[in-house]
Amino acid sequence: MNLYTPLTQRSLELRNRLVIAPMCQYSAVDGMPDHWHLVHLGSRAVGGAALVIAEATAVSAEGRISPGDVGLWNEQQLAAWQPITRFIAAQGAIPGVQLAHAGRKASAQRPWEGGRALAANEGPWPTVAPSALPFNHDWHVPAALDEQGIAKVIADFRVATRRALAAGFKLIEIHGAHGYLLHQFLSPLSNHRTDAYGGSFKNRTRLMREVIVAVREEWPQHLPLWLRISATDWAEGGWDIEQSVQLAKAVKSLGVDLVDVSSGGVIAGVKIPLAPGYQVPFAARIRRDADIATGAVGLITESTQAARIIDDGAADVVLVARESLRDPYFPRRAAQELGVNIEAPEQYQRAW
Ligand code: FNR
Fold first, then answer.
1. Is there a catalytic annotation at residue 180?
2. Which of 145, 124, 121, 20 is CA-nearest to residue 65?
3. What's the CATH number where 87 sits?
């Protein structure tokens, strides 16, 4: 097994183990992907990745992180994604999408505008969360979701799944990480509920399980479903790797094919021990103990480093984010460095 061995996920074959991680572009108007998204995602497909996962895509307008987020909450958005998925697929890459709801971290500025909660004159919208606890002292106080609100979240994921299929996506990743809505339910630090959605592990994981069931019902059996989680909150009393292993076991039986293992994001001001491949041990642990395929992500920037993760059996795929912004052809460069021949687009063959 190596970085360039294909991987079967249900009826799909990933041509290698390198995946472009979802990356918000904050460049949409009214949730509509446009030429930027086509060129951004398309060039990474040309770059040789097996799978290109489109950024956190909101299942509802209120679930956007910022006013610039893309969405799949209406038919216009569905139609706007179609030429993008078609182009990615034409390059031999699989078009994937990350479905997301930002919960209490919604209604925020784009990072380059400050990344803080939208001010009163910047068009903020009401936010929702498991409990009425703001992300930080200067963030919006969310409304605690009631039963009806929870049902709407599940229904929004369900309908967005239907649209993702019609839009031409072949793989869905549910965003359960980085302190967004589903993670907010998982973590005791952000979930203080006393009903069936809070308290015990079973209750805190309930919304995520219900969302997965709804998505899996809509998503064809022959197509894979991935889940991104934060394996730990890096904080006392928070979500941790033990719970992540338990969750991975539970979601495997619900039809999740791979857990994409990230970390952090649920509370502000946490110190994360950043280092090359710092999250890889979490992916390895979940892969071993929950017996499910995993993805490793986070400060993976070199070909030999990526190859070692697969060789060691720490993960089944490697997701690359920032290195692919520096070099969209990272998968081609890595192949060259590792002495592997991979097909180049006909137009570019004289370069390789
Ligand atoms: C991200 N990340 C991210 N994660 C996610 O789950 N959904 C998203 O939409 C985004 N958006 C996003 C935008 C940008 C510009 C960056 C740089 C990152 C996190 C990303 O997927 C990845 O997990 C981290 O960046 C760590 O991997 P790298 O960058 O060290 O390879």
1. yes
2. 124
3. 3.20.20.70
